[in-house]
Structures are given as structure tokens and as C-alpha cells.
Amino acid sequence: MAHSPICCVSQPQHVSRSCVPDVHRRPHATTICALSSRREALSIALAAVSLLPAQLAAAAVAEESSACGGIGLPEQLLVEAAQYDSFADTYDDLNDSAVAEVFGLPALRKDLLARASGDVLEVGVGTGINLALYRFGGQGVNALTAVDLSAGMLDVARRRATSLQLCGSGTTPRVTFQRADATQLPYADASFDVCVDTFSLCVLADAAPAALAELARVLRPGGRALLLEHTRSDFPPLAGYQDMTATAVAATSKGCVWNQDVLAMLPAAGLRLIKATPALGGTLRAIEAARA
């Protein structure tokens, strides 16, 4: 994809005669003019450099906007998407690493996704870490629709799906990918049997209730939401520590708000809790909820 120019300085269409060296002038006049021109050039260069960070951000947003496929994302979401694009290729170094294994995250994902069946929607699919854990066919998943805000993340997820032979050419793909905002899903009411989200609500922060409401909206009657999320612990000392460190954690972990009360959000979103399984002292929960 072609990038927008980082810096573009308009070139003058007319040069004043007073600043054109003239062999008939006294030498010092030509020197003064040349120094003046150099000062102007230096000023322009310094101004361009001072604007470079903003222009780089604008270029990233412009690139995201051109890749967004007409879904009409607000500028702030485009900025966030561009940030995720920038570390899409290294995102799994943490989320699918030995550290994640030590904390038991793969086992939590596997147990949660074993309950998915029928037509499934996964929001915040990211790099597709969950793809290998779905059971396709039979009593399992018929079709999986996977969405994310970041085009870069979706590219990695598509490559992973291809390596898992979930998107083979000449066959009906078991997984389809779409770029979408989790708080404004581009699907009709009652479109899916199961909706899945793993570790996305924390980075949605204040928008998390809206995302949950969208999951409830697109669920069919009797449909279920399967969530694996950071949550505020029920153990007061640990909950206090989460509250005390929430700002620092968000600043160093891609905006993750790790002390959200996800269970309290469910009723207002139109979801009814079926089961919640705490892990790591209640700072994580695997949640199964039904459309209310």
C-alpha cells in the first residue's frame, strides 16, 4: 500500500528579484540575500521536523482509513487500529508464549471454546490465537465469523487460518474474516448461536458495555456468549491492588483495564449469567452467559 508523503513543503512559484544574485551588485548585498534565504530554508526545515510526529500519526490514520473498506470508523478508532497494526507480527510473543502457558491461559481458552457450536462470531479475533481450539463439524462449529478492528491483526489471523486449512481454496471456508468495530457490529439481530470474546473487553475500556450489548443483540434466542476476561477480584486485598495499579497497568499493556467488573455489566447489556469460573485469584474469569 502506498503511503502518504510524510512531509510536503510547497515550492515557491515566484522568486523575488531582490533575492537573485546579480553580478552587477556589490558583493556584500548578494551575501546578505544568500544568508536570508538559508535562514528561511532552515526555518522551514525546523518547522517540518517539529510536525513530523503528528504527520506520521496522520499518515498511519490515513492508511487505516483507506484500508477500512467503507465501515466509517471514527478517527480515534483508526488511531487505535493503526497502533495494533504496528505490533501485529509480534503480538503472540506475549499472548501465545511460555508466560501464557505458566498462567494457564491456553487451557482456559481451550475449555471455553469447547462449548462453541453452530454459527459462531468471535470479536477481537486478533492474530487468531483461538482458531486452532475450535471444534469444527459434527456437534461443533458450523461456521466461524471472525472480526477485528485492526487490518494488520486480521492479516496474521488469515495466514494462521490458511495454515490450519480453514480457508482452503475451492471449498467453502470454515472461517470468514471481516474488519469491524465491536461496538457497532455489521450484522442483523439474532445472527449467531454463540458469540466469543477473549481478552478484548479490557482494552475496550469504557466501550466494553456497548460491545457486550452488541453481542446480546446478534445472538439468537437461546444463544450464548463465551467470554474470557480480566476482571476485578473478589478478594479485597487483591482487588485493592488492581485498583491501585490500574492506571499503570493500562499504560504499559496496550490499554488493558484489568479491574473491570465484567459480571456487573452483563444484565444491562441484555445477558444473563450462566456460569463464571475464576482463575488467578479472580483476576481472570471464564464466563458463559445467555441472551436474556
Overview in brief:
The protein is of the alpha/beta class and 292 residues long.
Could you describe the 3D structure shown?
With 292 residues, this protein is an alpha/beta fold. The chain has two domains: 21-72, no CATH class; 90-291, Rossmann fold (3-Layer(aba) Sandwich). It is built from eleven helices and seven strands. A seven-stranded mixed beta sheet has the order 3-2-1-4-5-7-6, with helices on both faces.
Which key terms come to mind for this protein?
Rossmann fold, 7-stranded mixed beta sheet, disordered N terminus, globular, 292 residues, 2 domains, alpha/beta
Secondary structure blueprint with pairings:
Blueprint lengths: L26 H24 L1 H16 L7 H12 L5 H4 L2 H5 L2 H9 L4 E6 L17 E8 L2 H13 L11 E5 L12 E7 L2 H4 L3 H11 E12 L5 H17 L9 H8 L1 E9 L4 E8 L1
Parallel strand pairs: 1-2, 1-4, 2-3, 4-5
Antiparallel strand pairs: 5-7, 6-7
Helix pairs in contact: 2-3, 9-11
